[in-house]
Amino acid sequence: MSNATFYIVSPESPQAHNKGFAEYIIFLTGYFAKQGAKVYLNCNDKAHAEAIAEYFWQVEPEHFIAHNLVGEGPKYSTSVEIGHDGVKPNWNRQLVINLADNHTTFANAFTQVVDFVPCEEKAKQQARERYKIYRQAGYQLQTIEIQHP
């Protein structure tokens, strides 16, 4: 059965800000990759994908995660691939971390979806719409509030 997990970002959390959110994305990506998942990060567009890839280069060497943009990197890609609407992952990916605002047509290609409910009202509404689409597609849904110190 396919699963979709929504992480709820509270306004007072470090993840409510760009840098904190990017750090959390890297943390989650690393967590899933260490479990052997082939992770796809879905972004809004090419510029967004490149910005996310840049965050992966800014971590300390001991936290580095091999990654590549769709169309770059080794023939069979790395365990983490970053793309956007209009491009497809190089090969079979089990898990997608959705960073795009409202693109959900990709979801049926993955057995596990990670998505977010941001703080801003318009973004919350977009997350609600994605939630409905996942539910209609038959995904088992759950929500998790991001824990922070």
Automatic annotation (TrEMBL):
The keyword Membrane does not apply. Keywords: Nucleotidyltransferase, Transferase. Its EC number is 2.7.7.7. InterPro entries: DNA_pol3_chi, PolIII_chi_sf. It comes from the Bacteria. GO terms for molecular function: DNA-directed DNA polymerase activity. This is DNA polymerase III subunit chi. It comes from Vibrio gallaecicus.
